[in-house]
Every structure is written in structure tokens, then in C-alpha cells.
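ARCHIVE CARD
SHELF: 3
SLOT: left
DATA:
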Amino acid sequence: MNKKWHMDQEKDFDEEIRHIFQEPVEIPEAVRQAKRQARNIIQNKDIRTKRHKGRYVMKFAAAAATVMIIFSGICVINPVLAENIPLVGHVFEKLGRSFSFYGDYNGYARPLDEKKDGGENTENSSEITGSEKSDTGNLYSQTENGVTLSLSEVYCHEKAVYISLVIHAENPIPETNTQGESTILYVMGSDLDFSFVDKKDEEFLWHELSGMLLDENTYAGVLRIDLPQNPTENFKLDFMVQKIMGSVEGEEWSFDGQWKYSIDVTVDHTNVVTKKVNQAKQCDIGEITVIKSPFDINLEYDHAKASDYLITVLDADGNPMLGAVNGCDTLDNLPVSYHDVSEITIYVFDYYEYMDEIKGYRPTEEKGYREMYEEKAVYYESVSFLEE
């Protein structure tokens, strides 16, 4: 392959990503309503919602959700490589790059085996390919109103759970928003219950699925659920999906039902690294903890102290790392796909200065992102993940 052509193509692709981020994306009205409900719940709990000059920082989190809906669709899967991969138990592999936090999950994700985990009627549960339909009434496969939702694999580190799944409908799945080769759906539900948390998580109102249509009746995707606090090494996750929905050109559709699941989860600490960023004297936000897994980078800090600021990250090449948002989370969950994360740099900006002067900045030959950020940031610090 001509190296110059490859580098030019990669540069053009990077520019396409940045261009897409400037465009609006359509979000179903039901999802917007769920987000508003989530914000109300969070505000009532006084979490991450300190008022600043008459505005809530949560408004930016909602905007960030729109950003990541776009980003989740710019990845591309190679159908030639994926067409012969068995489906259930191999969804991460089948999807390739068509979901936000893509990567090589082999050795990390555990197949959800109904026989081993105590399910019933499992004779054909691992043989779903294309438009074949799974058995119903199993531990990880439930059918409601002609729609079968089958859980495939689970991976968990100390900050999030990733669940791959397959949706098969008796009738064709309606058209829905896409970006590149990725298809965006949403699941809405309730009763998200972690066994290590005393009270059910009231914030499980909607989650994004990024994945792909395998045929007109079958969809494969990944659900990422943030953990509400540090988990125990082993825990049980119970949840119920009540709505699977999509939207295109303002037209919304949904599959309704009650798909209930219970999963035994083990936290995997393999290749998870934790680093601390010293307190910035220029902005009293306290310590920032950086947790890097093979698939994401997560930031932990005192959101109340940081409510007057906005925190963002550049990778080792000086490219912005763009956050993925589930529900009403913030820019604290960063996919590492497409990035060199051997070293990252964390930047703390004044919130309004960022929104007025930095958001949407396009780098020039004279001034890249790094130069612009270092000029405007209240504080910044680099974090190395090179082997020591």
C-alpha cells in the first residue's frame, strides 16, 4: 500500500470526523423526554448540577450525548471479514468497528452461556445467524410481541458494564438513523438493579445502542451501562427493557414489551490502569483520577467543585478524545478507538470561555489543538500510560 495515500486518507478521515461533529443529529422525542426526566432526577439528588450563572452544566452533558450519537456511527465494519462469524457469543467480533467502544474483546468478554448459568431450553440458543430466531423463555433470550432480545456477552471493569445483544423481530425492523455503517437504536426501561447497591438506580431511563442491521429482521449492538459506584468483585445485574426504539426524519417507532434479565458479572481488572492528576492550584477542583481500560478512559473528580469548568482530553497525537454519553452522563467516558493513548493530556477550561472561544475550533498549520488548548486552559497536565 502506498504509505502517502494511506496517510492522506487517514487525514481526510480525521477531517470528516471533525466535520460530522459540527452537524446536528436527530434524536427521538421520546428519548429527549427521557433525558429531561433523568435531568430532573439528578437535580433532585443534587448530583453534577451546580447552577452556574443561571445555567446548568447538565445542558452541556445533553449536548455531549448528541455528539457521541454521531461518533458512534462513524466506525466501519468489514462485512467480508464478519460474514462467517457465528453470532451469539461473538457479537463484539461480528460488529467490528460499528460501535463506539470497539476493540478486540476476545479474552475480555464472557459469553453468556445459559447452560452454564442455569438457563433452560438452550439446545439452539447459540445458533442464531442472520434472520434465524432464538428460542424463547431462556435466561438470556426473551420474546415479547414478536420481538426476541438475546444477550450475547458481557464485559465489566470497575466503571462500566458492556453487554452485546441481538434483536430479532418477526416483522422487518423499521428504518432508523445511521451514521456510516452504524445503526443507532435506543433501549428504555426500568428496574436497573446492582446487587452491591442498596437502592435501585433511578437513572436507568434510556441507553443508546450502537451496532448494525444484519438483515431486515435482525440487529446486533452493544449496550454500555455505567456503574453507580465502585462495584464488588462479583455482583448480579438485573434490568428490564420496556421499549426498543428508533427514529428517522422525525418519524419514531418502537417495540414495546417487558424483557427481563439477570446477569452474574465479574469485574475484570486486566490491563486496567489508574493514574492520579495532581490538584490544580489555578482551579480548586481537587484531584482527578484517570482510569484506563482496553476500551475506554474514565475521569473521576468532584463535579460540584468543577461546575464552573469544562474538562477535555487530547490523545498522544494532539487529537481531541470525544466523550460517549449514556443517559445523562458527562464527558467523562472516552472511547480509546482511533486514538494513541500511550499518553493523554487533560485540560481544564473556564466553562464559558470554552463554549464561546474554543468549542468548534478547527486547527490550522500554525496552531493545532494542543497549541490552542495550552493557550486557553486554566490548567493542564499530561498522563503517561507507557510501560514503566
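SLOT: right
DATA:
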Amino acid sequence: MHEESELVTGEAVVLDLRVAKLASRALAMALDVLVQLALLVGAIFALTIAVPADDEALALTLVLVFLVLIMVGYPVLFETLSRGRSLGKMAVGLRVVRVDGGPIRFRHALVRGLAGFVVDFWTLGLFGAVAVIVSLCSSDGRRVGDFLAGTLVVRERVPESTGYPAIGMPPGLEGWAAQLDLTRLPDDLALASRQFLARFSELRPEASHALGWGLAQQVGNALGTAVPPGVPPWAFLAAVLAERRRRDHARAFQAYTARVEAARGQVGVGQAGYPQAGFGQAGYAAGGPFGDPAAGQPHAGWAQPQAAAGVLQGGSAQPQAGWSSPQVSSAEPQAGSGVPQAGAGQPQAGAAEPSPRSAAETYPPTPPSGTAVENPFTPPS
């Protein structure tokens, strides 16, 4: 079971922080004390060489100054420069943060350092007894210095999150969700709904029901619609979020298509590995991630693949508008198809299919597989 903080920021966002408990903090403190003792021994050795032996008052004064600088200045300096980490905390994987989750500053580190030297550990702390007792009594493992400075020690090395699972559309709500005006849904409310659905199985039934209805009412008020009768709150929220994601994907794909077409217009047909517009590009099938479910057809600008490369078979789908291809079993060419007129190599009536040469001349070849194509950016996943 993981211990997590229950802190809330000023924007009413619950922080999901792994607080550091007594054992990990004690290990980090022990490492810091070893470093401080090594620095203190080195300072005393340097003073014995630099200060005359007969001047005991000066030697005692310098020892006290170095003692305070090392015991107080060391944690203050490191926690200020590294945003809350001393050498011991770096080794254990801990960090000091503010209670609102932000990084600490010099004043926070100074208050923690002075309180640690005077109250928690050395002067009045009975070699750490006060810090241990206060930490055990605190739900977040905070000592006196943390309470005075408004700080909290958290763990940085936590298991990687797998992220929120993909939310699917509940059956039967596709048509209802397609009519919603989702531009009125705030991003923070959508994020709260997604977090609720991700933790739905971890909540108690009464807690999930109450929280789900509360979120469903907020989402319904924002969209100007009520929860459909007989639909549970989790299904209502899932339908809204799934439709929102579908529209975001459709907009991203349209922007990608526009960028590709713009790049083709700048580079030119047949240059930089770009094929001729509308040729050799297969569209997404109906119901795919970016298809148009209403029309059941791929988006505009994408052509259907032919049954055979360069030759139209009898009974196959007709070529797209704007293609230059002779019709099968037709004596007259299509208007504007680019087929030579009568007397100039026009195919005869009743011909089953064009000759290989005319097909090769009519259809420009697609780039060979493996040819590098310079796309303006990667399509959305």
C-alpha cells in the first residue's frame, strides 16, 4: 500500500505525491551527517595548521563558526541550489517541496536548516529524538522544521505510471454524443472526469456513485444537457470523453492533410518523393481512427486503391474524379480525361482494356517502395 499525500493546491487540485516516511528520511539524514562530519574534520585539521597553537580563543571561535556553517549552511546551500535535495536525499531519491507541491526557495531551506540545528537534531533535539517523535506523530512524516517552513519531503523514485487507459464509447450512445456541443466543456472538468474513470474500479461503490453523479451533473450543466434516463454516470462521462477524443483526432487529421497538400503545392508534383495528388493514396476504412463514420468514406483528398496496378479490370470501381483514364468498353473518352482524340491513337469501340503502353503513359508511376518521402510532420497517433 502506497502512502500518498492529501494536499490540495489553491486551484483545488489534489496532489498525488508519495510522501517520504521515517525510514527513508533517516537514511538520507545519516548520509548527510557523514558528509558533515567529514567536512568538520577537514576544517579542524586546516585550523590546526593555520592558527597558532598559543591562541586558543581564536581557534575556539573559528571552530564554532565552521561548526555552524557546516551544520546549518550545508543543508541550506544544497537544498537551495538543487531545489530541495541534499547529497543524502539525492542518494535515497527524496526531495523537499512546498505543501502546495512547488519547489522550495532560500527562505524555506533557511527555516528548515535553523530549526533542524536548534530544535530537531542538535541543540535541543537530543540528537534527533525530537525529530523522530514529531515525524511519527505526523501523517506526512513532517518534522518541526517542515511545519515551520511549510514544506514536505516526497519520494522522487516512484514506479512509472502507465497513463490513463483509452476510454471507449458505450454502446448505444454514439448518436446522442455526436450532437453535443463539446466546446463548452472546460479542460479541468474533462481531466477530473478522466481521472474518475481511471480510478473507478478502485473506489468503493457508494463513493464512486456519489462522485460520478457529481461529475455528471457538472458536465451536464457545462454542456447544457441532462444525463439520459437509465444511463449510469460513468457511461455518460465515458461517452462525452470518447466523443471529445474522436473530434480532436479528426481535427488533427484534417490539419495534417492540409499541411501535406500545402507542402505538395510548394514542392511540386513528382518532386522530393511526393506522388501525384489523389493517386496511389489509400484512405482509411469506415470506422477507423480518423474515418468519417457518418459517410462511411475516407476523408476528402484520399483515393481508393485499384484492383490492379496501372490497368482497370472490368467491373472494378470507377476511378476518382480528375483521373485521366479511358473507360472500358467505351467508344468515347471522358471529357477532360486527357485521352487522345479520334485519329490520334484513340482506343476503338469494344476494346476490353487499354494497351500497356497507353496505360503506362496515362498513369504516372508511383514512387518505388523504400523511397524517402519528406513529410512536414509525423501524423497523429
